[in-house]
Amino acid sequence: MKIGIIGAGNMGTTLGDLWIAAGHDVLYGTRASDPTSNLRARPVAEASALSDFLVLAVNYWTIESALREMGDLTGKIILDISNPFALKAGTTDKHNPANFERALPPNQTALDHNRALAPQAVWVKAFCSLPGKAIRETHHQTPRIAIPYTADASQAADLLAALITDAGFDPVHAGSLAQTADIELMGKLSMQPMSKSEMLALIKQA
Fold first, then answer.
1. β-strands 53-56, 2-6: how paired?
2. How many CA atoms are closer than 13 Å to the CA of 171, on its beta-carbon side?
């Protein structure tokens, strides 16, 4: 599968490396102003057009402009890995968690916001329940760590589940897109690495 990862930061390249190791063809969509020596880097619009499956892996506060640069998204599958947190006014250090604050009302998910910007795409959600450091350090563990995902379209859900498996995790379907709040950071299925059986037991308790 040809995967276009929009953004070549820590999370995007972590997932990209895992999928490349699994045999997928990965391109990174980057802006001309973003310096990179990555040989897989392409302009955002080109990476989007050439890919079968897109991953939105940019900073939350740049999502709107990234979606515009991605071009025609009609029918495109987009994996949203974002969480609704932005830098506090007057801060610049993106590595300090204390510098971030929630950018949306409590009852609105990042997916709600992003999907409204490109309703013509087919959206799925995953890789937002754990910090990037945990993703980098826990793939292919035994037993495998569970990654919850939400999706409405069955074909897109199947593709996403396969990619989660290829990245070295156990996919757990957490419901439709309406259940996305459960898997974004601070949701009931987030923050704590757990096995598939542990996560399914937690879902069953709801």
1. parallel
2. 19
Give the DSSP letter of residue 197: H
pLDDT at 106: 81
Q: Are 176 and 156 in contact (CB under 8 A)?
A: no
* CA–CA gap between residue 187 and residue 181 (Å, rounded): 6
Half-sphere exposure of 44 (CA within 13 A, CB side): 23
* Among candidate residues 25, 176, 160, the one with its CA nearest the CA of residue 115: 176
For residue 187 the two structure tokens come to 């949701």
What is the pLDDT at residue 32?
65
pLDDT in tens, 133-174: 899 999 999 999 999 999 999 999 999 999 999 999 999 999
129, HSE (Cβ side, Cα atoms, 13 Å): 27
Q: What is the pTM of this model?
A: 0.91
> Where residue 79 falls among pLDDT bands split at 50, 70, 90?
very high
Neighbours of 44 (CB within 10 A): 25
Q: What angle do CA 193, 197, 202 make, to 5 degrees?
A: 75
The amino acid sitting at 125 is K
**How far is Cα 122 from Cα 140, in angstroms, rounded to an integer?**
28
Q: By the 8 A CB rule, do 18 and 166 touch? A: yes
Other residues' Cβ atoms within 10 Å of the Cβ of residue 154:
8
